[in-house]
Amino acid sequence: MKTALIALAVGVTLASAGCSLDSATKSANTVDVVVGYQSKTINTVTAGTLLRAQGYLERRLADITTRTGTKYNVTWQDYDTGAPITAQMVAEKIDIGSMGDYPMLINGSKTQANERAKTEIVSVTGYNPKGGLNMVVVAPNSPAQTLADLAGKKVSASVGSAGHGMLVQALGKDGIDPNTGVEVLNQQPQVGASSLESGQVQALSQFVAWPGLLVQQGKARLLYDGAELNYPTLHGVVVRRAYAAEHPEVLDAFLQAQLDATDFLNTKPLEAAKIVADGSGLPQEVVYLYNGPGGTSFDTTLKPSLVEALKGDVPYLKSIGNFADLDVTGFVQDAPLRAAYAARGEDYDAALKSTANPSVLGGTDELCQAPVDNPATASELWLDGAESTTAAASPTCLLKAIRDAQARGAKVRAAYVPDAELGTRWFADKAVWIRDGANYLPFGTAAGAQRYAHAHPGSTVVDYQQALAGAV
After folding, report:
1. pTM for the model
2. DSSP per-residue string spanning 317-372
3. 392, 386, 416: which is closest to 294 by C-alpha?
4. Are 169 and 101 in contact (CB under 8 A)?
5. Domain spanning 5-129+232-353: which superfamily?
6. N or C: which end of the chain has fewer CB within 10 A?
7. Angle 417-422-426 (CA atoms, 0-180°, nearest 5)?
């Protein structure tokens, strides 16, 4: 399992990026801006897929052109993971990139030896305070019920990714040596998905949106939710310091554009999910699982808790390869983001202190005649052909709404519930349900449902159809 980190971070040759452009100016009054992003890593969409589709960056730069006459040529480069983005930043071929927490740390470690390539983290795209953006899935018919059942099995993961880091930590917590207790195959997410489907591996440990996608497609079942670790995971933006020093107006425009995209996603999540689905090729129902209310917290601020989490990630990276020491505190720089907030007349410190998800369900549950005001229970129904969704006060109320809609002949496109134990937003029809008196409680995993059942005598595990029929 030991893998040289250098192979992970820079093993992708420059040729693999195709017609990459360097960021040298084409002429005296034209500046190149090369942005690396991951269209299918949907917690980076406010700095990638959604940002690109909405044209926010180009419009911000056009305003600068109007004022100064300087022109900007923006090139977007799409990758499956953060490693090739880092390789291109080491080569000074990408100026701004977005990726997950572990890849960002690898990025800082691998670029720091070259002043022209040296990077810094300047914003967060999205985060989950418990770690619920990483998951382990198994085949639908797998006998595995807990992570411990993977002992001696083959697990696909992208070594050095947040999904792999979560696996290592979770195995260790369960008393399984991550180096010898399982056989980890270092694979790209799409390769791992094929390996799971073909039976070449018995589990897949990945970051969003792969676990949700495979479960939604009926190709996998959730075995372990990273939120069980109760350790923050995040995605964010890195920039080459030399580029930012030479073109501070570009970084400011990018951060302003990211704030534009973040506001759009948080205020119009369903519309944003369609744009991201069109740009990434992912089903809109899967995008909305993560980008919808109660999913990922799309908050750009560099919170102290997230910086501390990054510091805690370093020992894992050192354990898997040649990770050069990195001053995480110095690697994280919030001055440009603070300036962007100030330019908009917004209070950065107030946003920094807030821990609430900026996008939550609200309103009134008409069927249950109850306010939708508790993020721990608020659920959501999306009917086929509807241009908006309906909020339910609780998972039990959601089941009633689904049954009521089906009785009218309506078709459910998707329904979302928060895991009763961990709070992770999940598909209602893929959840494991518990009947406890008149209440029905959803859990992402069988293990979570069993934990509740053992702690609450008289409660019973039921399947989705039984929950639907029983909710009254």
Report:
1. 0.92
2. HHHHS------HHHHB--HHHHHHHHHTT--HHHHHH--S-SS---SEETTTTEE-
3. 416
4. no
5. Periplasmic binding protein-like II (3.40.190.10)
6. C
7. 30
Each residue of 176-229: pLDDT tens digit?
998 899 999 999 999 999 999 999 999 999 999 999 999 999 999 999 999 999
3-state secondary structure of 379: strand
Q: What CA–CA distances, in Å, run from 189 to 4, 119, 196, 317? A: 19, 26, 10, 19
What is each CA distance from 368 to 136, 403, 465, in whole angstroms?
Answer: 35, 13, 20
| Among candidate residues 401, 454, 442, the one with its CA nearest the CA of residue 418 | 442
Helix (H, G, I), strand (E, B) or coil at 24: coil
CATH T-level assignment (fold) for domain 134-229: D-Maltodextrin-Binding Protein; domain 2 (3.40.190)
- Is-same-fold flag (5-129+232-353; 134-229)? yes
Fold for 364-470, please state it. Beta-Lactamase (3.30.450)
Residue 103 sits at the vertex; the CA angle it makes with 187 and 148, to the nearest 5 degrees, is 55
Work out the number of other CB atoms within 10 angstroms of the CB of residue 15: 7
Amino acid at 368: C
Is residue 97 within 8 A of residue 89, CB to CB? The reply is yes
Residue from 419, 445, 426, 432 nearest 146 by CA: 445
Q: Report how far apart the first and last C-alpha atoms of the chain are (Å, whole number).
A: 51
Residue 325 has which token pair? 């020491």
**101-111 helix and 162-173 helix, angle to the nearest 10 degrees:** 110
Q: Which two tokens stand for residue 452?
A: 């509740």
Segment 375-408, tens digit of pLDDT: 999 999 999 999 999 999 999 999 999 999 999 9
* Side chain identity at residue 188, one-letter code: Q
In 3-state terms, the chain is what percent helix, strand and coil (to 5)? 45, 20, 35
| Domain extents in the chain | 5-129+232-353, 134-229, 364-470
